[in-house]
Amino acid sequence: MADQVYHGLEGVLAAESAICEVDHESGGLRYRGYAIEDLTSEAAFEEVVYLLLMGSLPNHKAFSAFQEELVSSRAIPSHLFDILQDIPTAVNRMDALRTAVSYLGMEDPDHALNTHAANLRKAIRLTAQMPSLLAALNVYKKLDNNVSPRTAQSHAEHLLTILSDEKPDAFSVKALNTALILYAEHEFNASTFAARVTASSLSDMHSAVVSAIGTLKGPLHGGANEAVMEMLVEVDQLGDVRQYLTNKFSKKERIMGFGHRVLKKEDPRSLIIQQYAKELGERKNQQKWYDLSTQIEKIMREEKGFYPNLDFYSASVFFLLGLPAPLYTPLFVCSRIAGWAAHVIEQHDQNRLIRPRCRYTGAKDLAFTPLSERDF
Ligand SMILES: CC(C)(COP(=O)(O)OP(=O)(O)OC[C@H]1O[C@@H](n2cnc3c(N)ncnc32)[C@H](O)[C@@H]1OP(=O)(O)O)[C@@H](O)C(=O)NCCC(=O)NCCS
User: Fold this and answer.
1) What is the distance in A from the centroid of ligand 1 to the CA of 257?
2) In what order do the strands lie in the sheet with 20-22?
3) Which CATH class is domain 22-152+185-217+337-349?
4) Per residue in 104-122, pLDDT tens?
């Protein structure tokens, strides 16, 4: 085997997968062969979850049964709901969510089983329970665990109802449904890879998702969407986009929501979510976030050659939907849980332990001195 080191595993093909195709040449993105443009214009998020987990689109009957199963699996244990509500507001919501999923894993009826069927049951439960975990962790709106999770709404409408103070209109539901579809899957991104590494030791679904949540939290990955909204607020307060960026450039700081390890040109997800950022701004008479975003994008493209990724315009979409900023990255989890679960299932179905090598660069052949003789 060649001795080449690929830092950050850049460009390395680490496995074969039939879940998602990221075409870095054309920028195209397809889930199990279907273009995200078609899925976002036609499908419900739940259909996409079904597609990712089962491998094909559901017919009407299968979809109704799947929706019912999701709705009836939404509740979380009331003692967990109470624990989560007691977590201090200063605690990062991703830390709390990671802990909550770990807790759910201990109590899951299938927790010791890694079979395909058990993994599917766990995937459906986790997808359904995620909004309830966010509701419990929402520091801005207190809910009763017994009533909120059982309403028979779509996933997007359910999330908006339990997390924001506004009654969701059809366009807001469509906007969040679109964001959920776009966030659902992106092949071997860092958190999915973390989930697969964990699953590859034949550890369980919940452990893999805990690994993934810990990985997604970082600002270079899922944490970027919260950082983008902080940036937009700072730019608005400063009142000068160019000055803000010039200052960041001079300190060699990264601009959140720009750049991608695989996509070096347009991110097709950004083009789709951008339209919702624009229209939501117009509908809510708050165009300033979209205006500031387009100014930042113009300078980043022209002067740095960086394109926005999905997190850039998603931040103002979430803001305009009245969703609390500390829950932007947890909202990413509500969607990506489908992709993670599909990958855990694929990993378990064709497992080979993921165990790469590294090139050793440390000291060699040192003479050992007993502790009693170490007088330095
Ligand atoms: C996503 C990301 C981690 C990809 O990183 P990567 O593959 O290591 O980055 P690249 O190899 O493309 O970066 C090369 C150079 O561009 C710079 N760069 C990359 N993204 C940048 C950004 N968003 N703003 C400013 N500079 C950036 C790097 O600092 C590096 O500069 P250097 O060569 O002077 O050290 C990176 O673009 C980033 O940090 N973006 C901001 C966070 C973000 O939006 N994350 C969500 C990703 S979907």
Assistant:
1) 10
2) 20-22, 29-31, 34-35
3) mainly alpha
4) 999 999 998 999 999 999 9
